[in-house]
Amino acid sequence: MGSHPRYAAILCDLGDVLFSWSSETKTTISSRTLRHILASPTWFDYECGRLSEDECYKRVGSEFKIEPSEIAQAFIRARDSLRSNDAFIALIRDLKSQSQNTLRVYAMSNISLPDYEVLRTKPADWDIFDDVFTSGAAGERKPNLGFYKQVLQKIKVDPHQVIFVDDKLENVLSARSLGIHGIVFDDVNRVGRALRNLVGDPVKRGQEFLTKNAQHLESVTDGGIVLQENFAQLLILEATNHRSLVNLFEHTSTWNFFRGKGQLTTEEFPFDLDTTSLGITVTKPSPAIAHSVMDEMLSFVNSDGIIQTYFDHRRPRFDPVVCVNALCLFYSHGRGHELKKTLEWVHEVLLNRAYLEGTRYYETPECFLFFLSRLLQATGDAEIHGLLKPLLRLRVQERVGADGDALALAMRVLVCDSVGLRDEVDLRSLLPLQCEDGGWEIGWIYKYGSSEIKIGNRGLTTALAINAIAAMGVSAIPISPPPSPTLASEPTSPTSATRPSSPPTEGTRVRHKRASSFRTSLQWILPKIQPKSHRPVKDVQV
């Protein structure tokens, strides 16, 4: 994958970001009055080096009817209370270290030279800074644009590759107006997560999460109950092609959703056609076993010709996603024609958008679309491609930009890729949902049909998010919203939307031919990254 540094520098405020005032500081001047003093024009002049400390206190004392000595004493106590935000500084240090010190770190603060001299006596990891810019030395003050322009000129970094962190919105707004990526420092955990997502390589971090949690990538209900089940494990295996990541109870023929006794349902839970279809297509047993299972499955087709969910005639349930997965198994073994009525119903579900509120067993419309794309990638049958692919392309394009959790977004990007669309809009929403541990937020995939208890799996969401980023042919893109998001077309490739990535320890495979065209479409956001080619983008041929 052609990785590039999205950001080359972090620019941080000092006060209330890297350093904090103690809430226990006591002065004879109220905190409200101190805030007014700090916002006064006189204090602005002092911070910009246009007034001495004594002259500042004299003028402020006259303005606020307070003795200058009392003001001086209040600020001495306030300075003494300053403490470094060691956790946040350590995060910045870690980000710089992970970049092998290619990431530069600067401070930019509204602070007078005398106050800065006091601040430098405070114990802190000052070595993380490549330089510190103060209003006292610059003669300018945030949010005035001149201060930012001075700093940009000195650090010689494109503003689009600079991250600015400040606790005041007006200061962040000025930075953004110059093309800098601004973050308001309101919560240390939120800001820390945002910085890791902006600076770190999302694919590498996602792979590290999967490796660290190998064999423990379990599904969880929306009530926090851990489920030991096979289905998500099979999907993770298919997405990563890395058997050591998953915990499977492998079956020789038919499969059960659960790895042991049923949970939150009957303990003796019937084997099902959904997990069985997935299990056989992923683990690839001998053709004899596969055909034997399909023969058995054909005895569970209802009077409408639609294949059912369970190997149990007492549970006559059917679901369009289950049908799609059974079709995937049959078509991959050249027997799709035996489920003609099931295919016709799946087409009607797609045509009439019957999936928009999910299905009996699957939570989101993206699940139906994702497994449909998986079906098309499993077969080269011209008839089924002609029936489903143009319509799938239209239906997924309708979903672009819709609300969705991390799993739905990743699925949407992958489905778009499978039909020759580049979904930059949803990739842009997916990237910030990566957590500090490198995994993505949980996404809901299926649910209990009766109770509608939702089930999700962070490992699956992370595996598909990695593949979604890889499918776009670039390791990362800036998270800031673009001025005009686009959904571009590209010739369909025969590779699968759920094509397995390489093992986490070996890196993820990427379609390099897509990378150049993707970067071409993002030149407004990556002005310094030149595309390797300018191959014209054609519409999808179906």
From TrEMBL:
InterPro entries: HAD-like_sf (IPR036412), HAD-SF_hydro_IA (IPR006439), HAD_sf (IPR023214). It comes from the Eukaryota. Residues 482-517 are annotated as: Disordered. Signal peptide: none annotated. Pfam families: Hydrolase (PF00702). Residues 486-500 have a biased composition (Low complexity). Transmembrane segments: none annotated. SUPFAM superfamilies: HAD-like. One of its GO terms (molecular function) is phosphatase activity. NCBIfam families: HAD-SF-IA-v3. PANTHER family: ALPHA-D-GLUCOSE 1-PHOSPHATE PHOSPHATASE, FLAVIN MONONUCLEOTIDE HYDROLASE 1, CHLOROPLATIC. This is HAD-like protein.
